[in-house]
């Protein structure tokens, strides 16, 4: 995965960084843990200014987070609950899962929005309970902006600091990212199989 990301960034520069980070927040299989270090590496090679990739990456992440936030507000908690009750099995989501997420978000609120921006997978999902909970857009935007800027700066800084050494590490990091996705998919399939077996036994 890292090869085509590198090629994309070399062709489109900071604009490409923003596009990939936007897509990463809508389609998580494109990991920021690869995109932003490559952007930082491009800074070390003199191809892009650090502030350019930082602003572009942060804006892309912010836009992706706002997409899910406003989509969740539009759908509404009750409509989602009705859908999960009827069709949530294939996603291995139950009404009880929604209740647990609500309780967790009620406890942590804005700090969850900030902290989860730095956790793979959760950085996309955290916008959904925020939207369902009717967290004010201004508050969500503030904590999201702080979180995405900090995370983007950290990843880009790593790539910039490592320079040529990052190019040597990119291959193994790409395989690790792929392995994580495979493990997550395997976990989902296993959970789906267990839930289907439990429903058959209950019937």
Q: What is the element layout, followed by pairings?
A:
Elements: H1 2-26, H2 32-44, H3 50-75, H4 77-87, H5 95-116, H6 122-125, H7 127-132, H8 137-162, H9 164-202
Helix pairs in contact: 1-2, 1-3, 2-8, 2-9, 3-8, 5-8, 8-9
Key words describing this protein structure:
203 residues; mainly alpha; 9 helices; globular
Structure description:
- This protein has 203 residues and is an all-alpha fold.
- The mean pLDDT is 81.
- 31% of the residues are buried.
- The chain has one domain (2-194).
- The longest helix has 39 residues, at 164-202.
- It has helices at 2-26, 32-44, 50-75, 77-87, 95-116, 122-125, 127-132, 137-162, 164-202.
- It is found in: Cell membrane.
- Pfam families: VTT_dom.
- Residues 30-160 form the VTT domain.
- Keywords: Cell membrane, Membrane, Transmembrane, Transmembrane helix.
Order of helices and strands: HHHHHHHHH
Number of strands: 0
Q: Summarize the amount of helix as a percent range.
A: over 70%
Beta-strand fraction estimate:
under 5%
Biggest β-sheet strands, sense, barrel: none
| Mean pLDDT over the full residue set | 81
Structural class category: mainly alpha
Poorly predicted parts: none
Distance separating the two termini? 44 Å
What does the overall shape look like? globular
Radius of gyration: 19 Å
Number of continuous helical runs: 9
Tally of structural domains: 1
């Amino acid at each position: 995965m890292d090869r085509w990301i590198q090629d994309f960034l070399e062709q489109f520069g900071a604009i490409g960084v923003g596009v990939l980070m936007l897509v990463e927040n809508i389609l998580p299989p494109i990991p920021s843990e690869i995109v932003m270090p490559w952007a930082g590496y491009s800074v070390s090679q003199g191809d892009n200014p650090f502030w350019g990739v930082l602003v572009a990456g942060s804006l892309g992440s912010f836009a992706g987070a706002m997409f899910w936030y406003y989509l969740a507000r539009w759908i509404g908690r009750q409509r989602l609950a009705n859908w999960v009750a009827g069709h949530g099995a294939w996603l291995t989501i139950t009404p009880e899962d929604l209740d647990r997420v609500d309780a967790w978000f009620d406890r942590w609120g804005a700090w969850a929005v900030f902290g989860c921006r730095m956790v793979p997978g959760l950085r996309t999902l955290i916008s959904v309970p925020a939207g369902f909970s009717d967290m004010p857009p201004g508050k969500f935007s503030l904590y999201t902006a702080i979180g995405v800027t900090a995370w983007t700066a950290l990843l880009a800084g790593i790539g910039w600091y490592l320079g040529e050494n990052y190019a040597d590490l990119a291959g193994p990091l790409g395989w690790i990212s792929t392995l994580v996705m495979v493990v997550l998919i395997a976990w989902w399939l296993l959970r789906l199989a267990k839930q289907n077996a439990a429903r058959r036994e209950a019937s």
